[in-house]
Amino acid sequence: MNYDIKLGFLAADAISEFSKAASLQDAERYGTFLERCAEYCKEVKKTYGRPAESDILATVPNAIADFMRAVIKTQQPRPAIAAKLEAIGSLEALLTKIHEEQRTPSDDECLVIAKKVFETSAADPN
Amino acid sequence: MPGEKLSHYARLVSTPIEYLLRLDSAVRDSATWSAGGEYQAIRHKITEICDACKTKLLEEAPTIRRIYTESTDEQATLTPAEDLALRAVLRSTAGTFTALHELLLFLPRESIRRELRDYCVSLFREEFDSTKISLILTSLFNAFEYSLDDVMRFLEADVFKFKIPDPKSLSFGTVMELAIVDRANPLAWAVLAHEFGHFLDHNLGLRARAVKEFVAKTNTAFPEEFVKALERLSSEIIADLTGYYLQGPCGILPLVNMSLLIGCIQEPPIRFDGEHGAPTTRVEMIKMLSNQDHIDIARLNPQFDALLSEERQKELQLTAADQQQRTLIHQFLTGFFDDVRPIILEELGKRKFKRFQQVHYERAETLSGRLANGLPVGACRVHSDQEAREHLRTQEDPHTLRDKYFLLEERPVSVSEVVTAGWINRIEKSNDLYREAFTQTTSKEVFTRIANGLAEQDKLIFKSIDMIPMLEAHHAPAG
């Protein structure tokens, strides 16, 4: 089992903000909560992210593009990591939507976001 | 999950905090006996991260304080937000602990405590030959037993074959390993009763016998691979049974704590791995044995039930197919356990071990009261106060008072009773310890109180175990 201490700290910080925001009903704290979640998502992608097909620009010569595809094939994330990255992807989409709509998230949304952060902060199986 | 009683959270909170503080303490203490500059950077980093963990825990102090203050209120619970925030910080604490413990590989390692050797000699009796079994500490957060001969045989490289003696002519013996963090945690030493069960199994060929009888009983021709799988299962059942036989129901509590810690870090429930049953299955087996032996483990149940409740909640999140598979495995394991148990117990009964029984548990319950009052418990009175009073009342001659000193005689108790008393006291006192600690306002004050409280309890157990060999020698028949 592999546990990332830094990601764990970021997740704990984000969810702690949620708890404080919920108990104080403080709009500013909800904002901080969303910021911390965004920071956490960014860090998860940095930790687990692997090069993807979308990273190969159209301008890259074919030989180099083929080589990059061969490298990508060797670095496929394990199912548990792939699931984590997918969850982070959908979480980021929700955070972006709330940010674009410039509103305070509803209690249900906050709980969904906090749960996703918690679930994705679990240790990775061996 | 939200909706759990606060008493349940009380058990969840204490385990990761205790282990973080033990790790922190072990690393800081190591500076006194390994002051080399080359270790300072690692030590500094570990203690810095531990301090960061403590700061995050303190942010949840209002919730933790409420848990311990209102733990007896059956209706009180946490809001979903409080539940998540608490679990997140406990996950961070437990995960950080397990990661940092492996870094202890890079620090010099102490040998085991004298009291641990006394514990093993006393519990395992003549079967524990310290010239053949080495007790060492490991940076993996677990306990192990293995034959060093087997390890040497697996080393195929010629360089080893030329440089080391053939195990057939010079046995390397057996190794039992205990996590470094448990060196000064005497209640965790109970896990060695399980590991000793593996040693017995290796030396007596118990697993092969148990499976042979099982196969004969079922009158079925199993394929070789399945027989091997059954032997691996038997090996763990033998170890758990030995732990229970020698140390009683507390023999499995170190595993319960380890499982609570791992449970904090992972989402799915801890599953059957091909050898070890799920912790829930193993705990149920021990509870069943205790019930059959009329050992009332009500005072240990808070710790057992915390794990069972957490794992069951997680099971409910599995797919129906996965839940069904878990149930099938549980049913097979408990049935297999019932079938092989008599053979194993019969073999253990032939050894000169002291079997842990109801009378020992009841004595441990009495001893736990003395521990709670800050007294060591390596011995207990042969005659109760009431018996003494009755005797003095009926024979009041003051000139023969000296003859009545025997009424105050104390005899040594067993180490299994001491450790059991320690567990009962730990489980019952932890609410007061954590409640009092979290009334403090700074991180230093909170966690120093908890660390000191745990250290005081440990010292009493060390002292208790220490007394026993001396008292046994004192009371041994002359010549």
List key phrases describing it.
heterodimer; A: 126 residues; mainly alpha; 5 helices; 0% strand; B: 479 residues; 3-stranded mixed β-sheet
Kindly describe this structure:
The complex is a heterodimer of chains A (126) and B (479). Chain A has 5 helices and no strands. Chain A is mainly α and 126 residues long. Chain B has helices at residues 6-33, 37-59, 61-69, 80-103, 114-124, 148-154, 158-163, 191-204, 206-218, 224-247, 253-265, 279-292, 301-315, 320-350, 358-372, 385-394, 415-437, 443-475, and strands at residues 133-138, 144-147, 174-179, 379-381, 410-412. Chain B starts with 5 loop residues before the first helix and ends with a helix. Chain B has 479 residues and is mainly alpha-helical. Classes of the chains: A mainly alpha (126), B mainly alpha (479).
Could you tell me the mean pLDDT of chain B? 91
What share of the residues of chain A does DSSP label as strand, in percent? Answer: under 5%
Beta-sheet strand percentage of chain B? under 5%
Instruction: Give the class of chain A from helix and strand content and strand pairing.
Output: mainly alpha
Compute the gyration radius of chain A: what is it?
Answer: 17 Å
Order of helices and strands of chain A: HHHHH
Rg measurement of chain B, Å: 24 Å
Q: Biggest interface between protein chains, with counts per chain?
A: A-B, 27 and 26 residues
Looking at the chains present, what oligomeric state does this protein adopt? heterodimer
Number of strands of chain B: 5
Number of strands of chain A: 0
Helical run tally of chain A: 5
